[in-house]
Specification:
The protein has helices spanning 15-27, 39-51, 66-80, 104-111, 115-122, 128-143, 156-178, 207-210, 212-218; strands at 6-9, 31-36, 57-60, 85-88, 97-101, 185-190, 231-233, 236-238. By secondary structure, the protein is of the alpha/beta class. The chain has one domain (6-104, 165-238): Rossmann fold (3-Layer(aba) Sandwich), CATH 3.40.50.
Length: 240
């Protein structure tokens, strides 16, 4: 088993994920793994970094495929004993960092939900099961064309980010209860409006600029107690 620390970035063959890997290669004192669904694109991204004088490692990972997830889990458990840093752009070790790349659209969508839905998403005791139920309810309501009258906004992307940020808060709360001495920090963040395939060429930030806040959270120093369970934008905690 390797004694090196290890960071893993999902969906990292391009865009914000690739920029996060680039920054971690420069600043992180451990192994950095770039993951992607497509092996060819992932290895090409690693080769691109090598031409910049940076060393990243590749592991195939499709977060929508349970078999792929289990294979990656087993690999990192066997080779490193777990993860020290997980940047989820799409189980963690002692003193680890979990960064879920969300969006301010999640906050905007939440503000457009009915008061009843807002209260449920913001609840300090919402469970994972309750959150899954809410997300499934949105899908059903949207499919039936009744989402607006049942208190939902008209943006699936925004609601998905509401769910991701809420899940982050749940995970953070559970970590405090179940592993209080392990110093694991779990946060969600917004990279900003970044020039990616989805946002297009007119977005205001480059991928490297969009990576600043995710990398900041991934590299929070040992002994840090906060932020934890927060939504962070421009390296500042935002209200939820």
């Amino acid at each position: 088993m390797s004694s090196s620390k290890v960071a893993l970035v999902t969906g990292a063959n391009k865009g914000i994920g690739f920029a996060v890997v680039r920054s971690l290669c420069k600043e992180y004192s451990g192994d950095v793994y770039l993951t992607a669904r497509d092996v060819g694109r992932g290895t090409a991204a690693v080769e691109s970094l090598k031409k910049e004088g940076l060393t990243a490692l590749f592991h195939q990972l499709d977060i929508t495929d349970p078999r792929s997830v289990h294979t990656a889990r087993d690999f990192f458990t066997e080779q490193y004993g777990g993860l020290d840093v997980l940047v989820n752009n799409a189980g963690i070790a002692f003193k680890g960092r979990i960064v879920n790349v969300s969006s301010e659209m999640g906050s905007v969508s939440l503000s457009r939900c009915s008061p009843e839905l807002q209260a449920r998403f913001r609840s300090d005791d919402i469970t994972e099961e309750e959150l899954v139920g809410l997300m499934e309810r949105f899908v059903r309501d949207a499919q039936e064309g009744v989402h607006a009258e049942r208190g939902w906004p008209s943006t699936a992307y925004g609601v998905s980010k509401t769910g991701l940020t809420t899940l982050t808060r749940i995970l953070a709360r559970n970590l405090l209860k179940e592993r209080p001495g392990d110093e694991i920090l779990c946060n969600a963040c917004c990279p900003g409006w970044v020039r990616t395939d989805m946002a297009g060429p007119n977005a205001t930030k480059s991928p490297d600029e969009g990576a600043v806040t995710p990398v900041y959270l991934a590299l929070l120093p040992a002994g840090a107690k906060e932020p934890h369970g927060q939504f962070v934008s421009e390296k500042k905690v935002q209200p939820w």
